Amino acid sequence: MQTFLQKLSIKPKNAGVSTGQQQWTSTGEEIESFSPVDGKSIGTTTETTRKDYDQVLETARLAFREWRLVPAPRRGEIVRQIGDALREGKQELGQLVSYEMGKSLPEGLGEVQEMIDICDFAVGLSRQLYGLTMHSERPAHRMYEQWHPLGVVGIISAFNFPVAVWSWNAMIAWVCGDVCVWKPSEKTPLTGIACQQLIQAVFARNEVPEGVSCLISGGRSVGEWMANDPRVDLLSATGSTRMGKAVAEAVGRRLGRSLLELGGNNAIIITPEADLAVAIPAIVFGAVGTAGQRCTSTRRLIVHTAMYDEMKERLQKAYAQLRIGNPLETGVHVGPLIDQDAVGGYLASVEAIRKQGGSFVVEPEVLSGADYESGCYVRPCIAEAENQWEIVQRETFAPILYLIRYETLEEAIDLQNGVPQGLSSAIFTLNMREAEQFLSAAGSDCGIANVNIGTSGAEIGGAFGGEKETGGGRESGSDAWKAYMRRQTNTLNYGRTLPLAQGITFDI
């Protein structure tokens, strides 16, 4: 166990503040990271004090003055080297992600692969930060727009993807010419420290200014500093809808920019023309992967009445084959929840389901015994429910799947859309008309809508994000880079006169 920690330079006590080569232990309260896998302490760091925070922000702002002038392809080359460093450290970092967060090792390694993929994407993007040229209504004038670096990008990441979501923001921000201040989740601080140490080795070789990549540690109060700080030009926050609303309010008061990736309540629709051999693995992985702690986890399964009984039987057989245990072991499908509070949320939701009249197709259980000594292991469960129930309307970050009936496709789409969140959605059908209806303006209202693949997981080439209470933000691919830059419209007069717009004359 200690081998990969040592390779990542993770110690019993770790510096909680970093602006690059400068790393120091703040005088704030100690943050201890316990693995949900076995309940053991991995290491500690310290919460950033306000004094240290201000020092970090000033260092970042000074670094921006230099970094913005580095040509974008050169910035891309440095990100390419980060990708190579991640390839070299993939096994160790993936193990740390799995051990500190609790997801299976293949998922931990897959998360690091996402980081590598976004590096590759960002390298290409560094030569494609395109603007537009427009025809002017005035003679001898040229109009165009260009994109400039924004400044300091603050990143608040969540425990469930402790490194990937940070990289979606940071790699794009860096090639755009921004600098980053990252606050990892206080539940997974050591993965953040490992990433900072890895990239700083690359930055040192390339003489990148101190402060282009900064790390701070802490909980809600540190996040509030970032949200209220006008020195943070863009705040990208991933977490619960409740947290996102607080961030949006604080940033909005100062007319700042925010990029929000919040809760999901994702559904899969199963029509009579679905290929169940394809659908079942997608449903099960979507519902139990990362122990149901993905924002894209499948929460609701909306099944046509004609398929309902068969679907219950198939899911019971599939769930009976799930292996729950140490996520670092080969063949384990489901690891632990992040902590005891998450287990409490699971139990509270189970109680609410029963109070509202739900029955369980696969029974819930908190697992105990030598193999589950951390007390964070639960059995993925399936409940028959109604879409309008309060418990179904909100997101529970645990492996609970709701089975819901429907009669017509229009009803199914209304059920799919009938929740406050709008992140990911899917339909399984071999009927082209059903698929196109789901993808049309009258179909899914989510930021992600899939056909014959599940809700969970996304490729970095497409912009990731959702609508409604999911926050409206977009990260990763497509033109999501524009969120990290400021647009400037330019008009250049190369003539010998000054014609005014709309034919106005102004003789002096």
Automatic annotation (TrEMBL):
Q: Which InterPro entries match?
A: Ald_DH/histidinol_DH (IPR016161), Ald_DH_C (IPR016163), Ald_DH_CS_GLU (IPR029510), Ald_DH_N (IPR016162), Aldehyde_DH_dom (IPR015590), ALDH7A1-like (IPR044638)
UniProt lists the family membership as follows: Belongs to the aldehyde dehydrogenase family.
Describe the location of the Aldehyde dehydrogenase domain by residue ranges: 26-489
Annotated coiled-coil segments of the chain: none
Q: Which GO terms describe its molecular function?
A: aldehyde dehydrogenase (NAD+) activity
Keyword set includes Isomerase: no
Does the keyword section mention Oxidoreductase? Answer: yes
Q: Which CDD domains match?
A: ALDH_F7_AASADH (cd07130)
Class of this enzyme: oxidoreductase
- This protein is called aldehyde dehydrogenase (NAD(+))
Can you state the subunit structure given in the record?
Homotetramer.
Give the enzyme's EC designation.
1.2.1.3
Gene source species: Arundinibacter roseus
Biased composition, class Polar residues, residue ranges: 16-28
PANTHER family (alphabetical): ALPHA-AMINOADIPIC SEMIALDEHYDE DEHYDROGENASE
* Catalytic-site annotation from UniProt: 261
Q: Which UniProt keywords apply?
A: NAD, Oxidoreductase
Give the span(s) annotated as Disordered: 16-45
The source's domain of life comes to Bacteria
